[in-house]
Amino acid sequence: MTDPVLSEQPIAETSPRYNAVLTRRVDQHATLAFFWVAYTDEPVGFEPGQYLTIGVESSGKLVQRPYSVASSPRQAAGGYEFYVRLVDGGLFTPLLWRAEIGQGMSMKGPKGKFVLEPEDERTHVFISTGTGIAPFISMMETLRKDGTPRPAVIIHGVSYEDDLGYRELLEGWQRSGEYPLTYIPTVSRVSSPRNEGWSGRTGRVETIISDVYGELDLTPENSISYICGNPDMIIAVDETLLGRGFPEELIKKELYWPKGKEPTAAVRSGAVTPALAEG
Questions:
Q1: If exposure means fewest CB atoms within 10 Å of the residue's CB, which of 53, 88, 154, 227 is most exposed?
Q2: What are phi and psi of 77, to 5 degrees?
Q3: Is the pTM of this model over 0.70?
Q4: CA-to-CA separations, 125 to 136, 220, 252, in angstroms, rounded
Q5: DSSP code for 3
Q6: How far apart are CA 279 and CA 188, in angstroms?
């Protein structure tokens, strides 16, 4: 993995647009990181699964992007956690990667309707690619803190093993039984040297869905599915689940729409609603 080339655009240290501050950062690797942003005044409430829009001022303009909150609203006083990928050629993330702890930021929201159904005891199948796993971490952590965890299957697809964000947390919950879940990660670029030690499932998420649902006997009667991530994956998984007899109301969707990418016919028709943009 080569070091990323970061934007040289200026970042304003102070701005009347700023109402928050970058408080913490943990790097997973060169192009994946966890960021915590806190309001300078009182925190705002949100529902697990919703997103906030964060940004910085550069050359007199506010550069911002929406991201699902990965942390629980039960811990908002300590800042909101975001799981972010550095986008090559993006407008915002190359600035974010250069921001120092203490950098002022703009934070707006929350928004979004990708939230849990109330009092639903069916098995929750959380399907994601890349950083799309973030809202599911917020959902499960909130249910865990509230003492009302719901049985879950976590299917997370990435290109490389070292892209598996929250792997240690999820494997720990699975081992301890602290949260009743089955964790199923899969990597797609099996020939890459970065995956040479991988012994788990392989292939894109959409290619393993039928097998997983069959192996775990997941049916419309005993499960509900939530999908977040790459729009093409969402469309493919949606079609697979519909083919297995799942009605639309049991397939909840939130896509991470790459800025500048031409929407597919399914998005234009309203089958999938673009909500979040990477960049």
A1: 88
A2: -60, -25
A3: yes
A4: 10, 11, 10
A5: P
A6: 22
Give the β-pairing of 32-39 and 51-58: unpaired
CA-to-CA distance for 237 and 53, rounded, in angstroms? 27
Residue 206: C-alpha distances to residues 135, 230, 236 (Å): 19, 11, 6
Domain ranges of the chain: 20-111, 123-278
CA atoms within 13 A on the CB side of 121: 0
- Annotation: CATH topology of 123-278: Rossmann fold (3.40.50)
Correct CATH for 20-111 of 2.60.120.200, 3.40.50.360, 2.40.30.10, 3.40.50.1360: 2.40.30.10
Kindly give, in sequence order, each residue whose CB lies less than 8 Å from that of residue 99, ignoring residues fewer than 6 positions away.
11, 22, 56, 105
Show the tokens assigned to 191.
């020939």
